[in-house]
């Protein structure tokens, strides 16, 4: 008997790139490898309710965020459905009710595309499993979920698992792929095991540049070639750093990656400055504090003004004090989010 309806729920985390993905080819193929920490607290929870409909020729779905119907989300999801149509035979046979919520404030300037698209991809995979009554091997399920998530938003392919995920073909990680993320396979020092990420919400406004526009600016970018090569080189440099636990070398590398991402945007045509004055205030405070205290605190940035403050758990007390006393004043409404490295998505 064919299944007529059902319901699945997944929660999936956000991730923060240490080596940045910026620039892509057709079909969401990255121009360079990237590596990220999967986060733990910043998550999207998505429930998809599916019911068989009279055969139609188009996708049929509704989207709700925190219970409110969101028609402005529909084009992005329709694009995603179109891209993954060939991998799921049932997409046009059902009506889908997609209900989603985030654990972090929306319009916080934190991209929900990685957590949102990975949660949706996982729901589609679970539905496929129910409909075909097949048992996929866990490993294959996760690989396909990452592959599908990538077609929603590139960085989403790094959110299925944790705690360190590599995406993009490279010579360092055996089995790495442009098509999906893989777990970082090498030894990682204790120092990085429960790394902390305190996200300072400097600017909660709409993104000035969508990532699609941003990636496209790397086409014909004067520094594109050397940037893509640098990402490979940095991945190679990161390996002994992660192995030895050298926190200072780690900070040097990730801060350089963050500033390079922004430098790419400043040197594209058209050009953009995505940092705000308070972003720079925070960066300078971090540098001064690091010098004076000797504590291993560093930062990374996404394609926006918010600052991710990264540090090992063992120094969390002193560094959180510093953040509260000296950095929070530069955040919009003093808002910040405490997160840490996490282990990936979960079915609920
Ligand atoms: O996944 P996208 O297409 O939104 O790209 C995100 C790119 C950065 O967040 C800026 C860097 C990264 O590797 O996550």
Binned strand content = 15-25%
Number of helices: 8
Unreliable stretches covering 5 or more consecutive residues: none
Please report the first level of CATH classification, the CATH class of the largest domain: Alpha Beta
What small molecules are bound in this structure?
Answer: (3R)-3-hydroxy-3-methyl-5-(phosphonooxy)pentanoic acid
Structural overview:
This protein has two domains: 5-186, Ribosomal Protein S5, domain 2; 190-340, Alpha-Beta Plaits (2-Layer Sandwich), CATH 3.30.70. It has eight helices and 14 strands. It has helices at residues 74-84, 113-132, 138-152, 211-216, 224-244, 247-266, 277-293, 316-327; strands at 5-19, 24-25, 29-30, 34-52, 60-65, 68-69, 94-102, 164-167, 181-183, 196-200, 298-301, 307-311, 336-340, 346-347. Strands 1, 4, 5, 6, 7, 8, 9 and 14 form an eight-stranded mixed beta sheet that branches. The chain has a four-stranded antiparallel beta sheet with strand order 11-12-10-13. Strands 2-3 form a two-stranded antiparallel ribbon. Strand 2 (24-25) and strand 3 form a beta hairpin. Helix 2 crosses helix 3 and helix 5 packs antiparallel against helix 6. The radius of gyration is 20 Å and the shape is globular. The protein binds (3R)-3-hydroxy-3-methyl-5-(phosphonooxy)pentanoic acid. The site of (3R)-3-hydroxy-3-methyl-5-(phosphonooxy)pentanoic acid has 14 residues, from loops. Residues 17, 20-22, 34, 111, 113, 153-155, 211, 261, 302-303 line the site of (3R)-3-hydroxy-3-methyl-5-(phosphonooxy)pentanoic acid.
């Amino acid at each position: 008997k064919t299944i007529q309806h059902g319901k699945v729920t997944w929660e999936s985390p956000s991730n923060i790139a240490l080596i940045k993905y910026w620039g892509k080819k057709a079909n969401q193929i990255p121009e360079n490898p990237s590596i990220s920490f999967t986060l733990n607290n910043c998550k999207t929870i998505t429930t998809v309710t599916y019911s068989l409909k009279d055969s139609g020729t188009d996708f049929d779905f509704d989207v709700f965020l925190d219970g409110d119907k969101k028609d402005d989300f529909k084009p992005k999801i329709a694009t995603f459905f179109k891209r993954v149509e060939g991998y799921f035979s049932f997409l046009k046979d059902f009506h889908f009710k997609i209900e989603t919520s985030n654990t972090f404030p929306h319009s916080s300037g934190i991209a929900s595309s990685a957590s949102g698209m990975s949660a949706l991809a996982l729901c589609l995979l679970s539905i496929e499993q129910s409909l075909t009554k097949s048992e996929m091997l866990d490993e294959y399920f996760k690989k396909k979920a990452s592959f599908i998530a990538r077609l929603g938003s590139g960085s989403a392919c790094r959110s299925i698992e944790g705690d360190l995920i590599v995406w993009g073909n490279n010579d360092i990680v055996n089995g790495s792929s442009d098509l999906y993320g893989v777990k970082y396979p090498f030894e990682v020092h204790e120092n990085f095991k429960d790394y902390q990420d305190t996200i300072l919400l400097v600017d909660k406004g709409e993104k000035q540049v969508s990532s699609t526009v941003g990636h496209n600016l790397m086409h014909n970018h004067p520094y594109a070639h050397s940037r893509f090569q640098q990402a490979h080189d940095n991945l190679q440099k990161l390996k002994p750093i992660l192995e030895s636990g050298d926190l200072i070398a780690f900070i040097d590398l990730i801060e350089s990656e963050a500033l390079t991402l922004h430098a790419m945007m400043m040197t594209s045509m058209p050009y953009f400055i995505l940092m705000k004055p308070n972003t720079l205030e925070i960066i300078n405070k971090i540098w001064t504090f690091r010098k004076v205290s000797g504590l291993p605190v560093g930062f990374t940035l996404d394609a926006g003004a918010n600052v991710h403050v990264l540090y090992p758990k063992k120094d969390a007390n002193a560094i959180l004090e510093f953040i509260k006393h000296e950095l929070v004043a530069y955040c919009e409404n003093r808002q910040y989010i405490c997160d840490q490295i996490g282990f990936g998505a979960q079915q609920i």
